[in-house]
Amino acid sequence: MAIPVTVIILTRNEAVNIAACIDSLSVFGEIVIVDSGSTDQTREILRGAYPHIRVLEHPFKDFGQQRNWALDHVKPAHSWILFFDADERCTPAFADAIASAVSEPGGNVGFFLCYRNMFLGQWIKRCTMYPTWQLRLLMAGRVRYQKDGHGQREVIDGRAGYIGVPYDHFGFNKGISEWIARHNEYSTNEVELLESLRGAPLRLFDAFARDRVQRHRALKRLGAHAPLRPVVRFLHLYVIRGGCLDGRAGLLYCGLQFAHELHILAKGSELNHARRAARHSHAPLSHANNILE
Fold first, then answer.
1. pTM
2. Is a pLDDT exceeding 70 seen at residue 36?
């Protein structure tokens, strides 16, 4: 019997991933694709191998906006919705955990999920901050999303629980070059997020809160004020979190994260320089604003 959950997969140019992703989700009652203008073979694969799956299209602005659009337009067959990405895979244990959660939600209107990051053929558990939590399983009409850096944060009408059984994330399936290009876009959004975090009040006690998401967000606010963020990030992941125990894959992943933080630092410095130059010349701030667009 199918698990009574509607799975919504966000896609854009996912020909490499889409078939394996859908096949791993075959135990669920409904799968819907929300595509944001794929130009590769994604749509052809869907039409040829999965003609029964509904495909909607909507331009991508950010993850929060795209998920909200999906919630408003998909018209799911089931009251529970699972958001999935094409580079993610459902395992049998994860599917069983979802089935148990929706059959006995215990008053929860959503659930935070965690994932295993795969790189160079292995799970890099330590240097990827496992477990990292995202609210991806939710009851229709009870959750909305807001942009938060390159990702999103949730506005929950009710209580949310946690499911500790992970799904698998293959973020490097399209190659390291694609990962770098994607994170070049992410780094621009992170500059905007860091500016927001630096303006938010520092509540040190939140870093010791029971709620895991509250702790994570508090630590992110603290991290926004850290000097030499790329070095701090590398040392935190490789030494403190034990990425050195993840072998060669851990070292390379931590190096990629160092480079990502360096890009954020450089783009933030560029933005501040453009703003200072505009103020001194009394010119409009259009160039500075364009840096974040």
1. 0.83
2. yes
